[in-house]
Write a structure and sequence with these properties.
Its cofactor is Fe(2+). Removes the formyl group from the N-terminal Met of newly synthesized proteins. Requires at least a dipeptide for an efficient rate of reaction. N-terminal L-methionine is a prerequisite for activity but the enzyme has broad specificity at other positions. One of its GO terms (biological process) is translation. This protein is α+β, with helices and mostly antiparallel strands and 195 residues long. It has a single domain (5-181), classed as Peptide deformylase (Peptide Deformylase, Alpha-Beta Complex), CATH 3.90.45.10. It has helices at 27-40, 73-79, 139-152, 163-177, and strands at residues 5-6, 45-47, 57-61, 83-95, 99-103, 113-117, 120-126, 132-138, 187-188. The two termini are 23 Å apart.
Length: 195
């Protein structure tokens, strides 16, 4: 089922999310719905707060990066097949020299800015079967994971841009709050007129 994606300004996007147990109601169905919602919106990641749930859950599917001819073949091949569910994730390490990439977010349509992140991470998480993993990721996979991880910490990519860039995007962000944007996917806005 395709779920509405929560727009910028909704308080759920600012909550530090709660851990869940394997008994969380209809967890498998929720995870499938999140993948369906992400795919429908042509995203590469989606966190539970983006569908209105303040829980430590996010999904990543980097297949679209697999077509990027600018990436090294080894990384492109990995990204073309990388799909993963992260429950109760905890980033243990972020290492390397920060690099910029132009990021966007399904909750913030029409806004893209360069964000600096470290290229290598070590993350501990549970998968959809509640098996625990500790893994290292690098490059674009690490970046997508860091972006989604920020969501479960109540952080948005717009928090990581300069004051000037925030000022330049303020009207766009206000338009999202008021529901004056029209992405190609279902959204829920905090202050849409006529609610």
């Amino acid at each position: 089922m395709i779920l509405p994606i929560v727009g910028y300004g909704d308080p759920v996007l600012r909550k530090e999310c709660e851990e869940i147990t394997k008994d969380y109601p209809q967890l498998k169905e929720l995870i499938q719905n999140m993948y369906d919602t992400m795919d429908n919106a042509y995203g590469v990641g989606l966190a539970a707060p983006q569908v209105g749930l303040p829980i430590r859950l996010f999904v990543v599917d980097t297949k679209p990066f697999g077509d990027d001819e600018d990436l090294p073949k080894k990384e492109r091949d990995f990204l073309a097949t990388f799909s993963c569910t992260f429950i109760n994730a905890k980033i243990l390490k972020e290492e390397g020299e920060e690099w910029a990439f132009n990021e966007g977010c399904l909750s913030i349509p029409g806004v893209r800015e360069d964000v600096y992140r470290k290229p290598n991470i070590t993350i501990e998480y549970y998968d959809e079967d509640f098996k625990k993993h500790t893994k290292e990721f690098s490059g674009y996979a690490a970046r997508v994971i860091q972006h989604e991880y920020d969501h479960i910490e109540g952080v948005l990519f717009t928090d990581k841009i300069s004051t000037l860039k925030k000022k330049l995007n303020s009207k766009r962000l206000q338009n999202i709050i008021e529901g004056k944007v029209f992405p190609d996917y279902k959204m829920k806005f905090i202050n849409k007129k006529g609610r």
